[in-house]
Design a protein that fits this description.
Blueprint lengths: L3 E13 L11 E14 L4 E5 L6 H8 L7 E6 L8 H4 L3 E5 L11 H11 L4 H14 L15 H13 L5 E5 L7 H18 L2 E5 L3 H7 L2 E6 L2 E7 H8 L3 E7 L13 E5 L2 E6 L6 H10 L3 E8 L2 H11 L3
Parallel strand pairs: 3-7, 3-8, 5-6, 6-7
Antiparallel strand pairs: 1-2, 1-4, 8-9, 10-12, 10-13, 11-12
């Protein structure tokens, strides 16, 4: 039995359009947020759940956290049905929404943590040990007496994450956890999540548009589009389907002879740099490097694969998302 089991989930919403002038009734439309979605997750996995806006990601998370009830299908988390066993279920999960706060806005965060301790019925000794561990790892010790409203966005996100993990949940839902964070805060948060996953065995389901987060944290990804599951597998395999081009930047001592480059290549000049884009499927990288070396004496050369965000954007276009 898998830790998370989802079978043939369906969920639709009725949306009423704005009433037009002269019409007595507003028109209604049906949005199919989830359509026959099935997957399973083993305990201790850290999975990226990606897709464009409106793909059904948040609806899935709300169903698995017990907030929504599906129209049909089955889901279980640790043997519990989230929407019928909600009181028991929420004792074992943590949820962090990037734009929604669970901590109280005007009180010191330590007071929010103590209230969460009582809500989740965490024993005093276990609470103090866990609080010490989390505030140290998330650099919050000097902020415990600070109200949430006086914190920066990065500090608030760390404080929210701490609050979601105080009761040591078996499952953590993260929805855009690094939104708006600076580079340093993002790196610290990613490092912490990897450590929590590896050392505590916490299962993490991460939904985000930040593909750098996905690439840094997740090996397995699921792609959702139009309410349907379109892919479930390893991230490198997914990227390899769309990572069809390479770019090489070359600077020569003297004007080179690049006439022997294949017609399938794209050649651009940027100052003293030559930028060559090619497809390894048409010309192997070793052959391309040999042609560039024969073109003249090189000063400098760098090769790079495509940006992950560009690859995902291409995937969305090809999947008509």
């Amino acid at each position: 039995m898998h830790f998370i089991e989802v079978e043939h989930l369906n969920k639709s919403f009725t949306v009423r359009k704005k009433r037009e002038k002269g019409r007595f009734l507003r028109e209604k439309s049906i949005i199919h947020a989830l359509q026959d979605v099935s997957f399973h997750v083993d305990e201790g996995e850290l999975i990226g759940y990606i897709g464009p806006n409106g793909a059904g990601k948040s609806t899935s998370v709300k169903i698995l956290s017990g907030i929504l009830t599906p129209d049909s299908g089955r889901a279980s988390v640790g043997g519990l049905t989230p929407w019928t066993d909600r009181k028991t279920h929420v004792q074992h999960i943590g949820v962090v929404f990037g734009q929604r706060m669970q901590l109280w806005w005007d009180v010191p965060i330590i007071d929010s943590y103590r209230l969460l301790k009582d809500i989740y019925k965490v024993q005093k000794g276990a609470f103090e040990n866990r609080l010490e561990e989390l505030t140290d790892a998330l650099d919050l010790k000097n902020l415990l007496a600070t109200p949430l409203r006086l914190m920066s966005l990065g500090q608030r996100m760390r404080a929210e994450l701490c609050g979601s993990l105080l009761h040591s949940p078996r499952l953590l839902f993260l929805d855009e956890p690094t939104i708006g964070l600076d580079a340093v805060s993002k790196l610290k948060l990613r490092e912490f999540l990897l450590k929590e996953n590896r050392e505590k065995g916490t299962t993490v389901l991460l939904t985000t548009h930040d593909m750098e987060d996905i690439a840094a944290l997740c090996q397995r990804v699921m792609v959702l589009g139009h309410g349907k599951k379109l892919y479930d597998g390893q991230l490198p395999e997914l990227l390899s389907r769309y990572d069809t081009q390479r770019t090489i930047h070359v600077r020569y001592d003297a004007p080179p002879d690049l006439s022997s480059l294949p017609e399938s290549c794209t050649l651009q000049k940027d100052g003293d740099n030559f930028i060559i884009t090619y497809e390894p499927a048409r010309i192997p990288t070793s052959d391309m490097l040999s042609l560039l070396q024969k073109a003249g004496a090189m000063q400098e050369m760098t090769a790079q694969s495509q940006n992950v965000d560009l690859l995902i954007a291409r995937m969305y276009r090809e999947m008509d998302l």
